Amino acid sequence: MPECPLCADSATALLYTQQRGPLAQREYYLCPTCALIHVPATFQLDSENEKRIYDLHRNNPNDVHYRQFLKRLFDPMCDRLPIGTCGLDFGSGPGPTLSLMFDEVGRPCTTYDIYYEHKPERLKRTYDFVTCTEVIEHVAAPLHVFHQLLDCLQPGGYLGIMTQRWTSVDRFAGWGYRNDPTHIAFFHESTFQYLATKFALELTIYPRDVVIFRKSQVAIGKERIA
């Protein structure tokens, strides 16, 4: 069985195999330790085909409905962030919007995206907050990415993640979120609780698709963003 890409448990079990459609025969494995459901590498897209799908996204910072969608994370983050705090939007995509929303309310936010804003130097700085909206479900190595996100946070900083969570094994087969070919990692509330325990983080879980972590007050040795 494939090893869990989040906790490295080798006891993952086949949960579901897609029966029909363009993703027929795609397999999904459930980890008994961290409750992550993941798609093995055999069924993942290469970077060229993955980006081809992302290029079809039409996220527009002037789209009122898209902004309203992002407010599910934006509002509870702003409630925690004083004016002047600086952040990073990780995986900002082809139409960065959340970073602009933070800029507009006095919380400067830069961006990073492996395809559209690939500036690794921005991951070598630290920030008061980091956001990751509709990104973590796309990554093949979620533990590595989670380390990256935490490394970018100042002590006491906030990490906000938006991704739909799976709720029950019985409902997984009918869950439309799994049908996106770029979605390969699916988180449960228990998965985020596992991460909070592993990294000694404070965790707040919001309905459906938002969680916010707070990093402990431990010094780290990176350059803070100006």
Automatic annotation (TrEMBL):
Under the heading InterPro entries, the entry gives: SAM-dependent_MTases_sf (IPR029063)
Alphabetical list of Pfam families matching this protein: Methyltransf_23
Can you tell which superkingdom this protein's organism belongs to? Bacteria
Q: Which UniProt keywords apply?
A: Methyltransferase, Transferase
Q: Which GO terms describe its molecular function?
A: methyltransferase activity
Instruction: Please give the biological process terms from Gene Ontology that the record holds.
Output: methylation
Name-wise, this protein is: Methyltransferase
Provide the species name: Pseudidiomarina marina
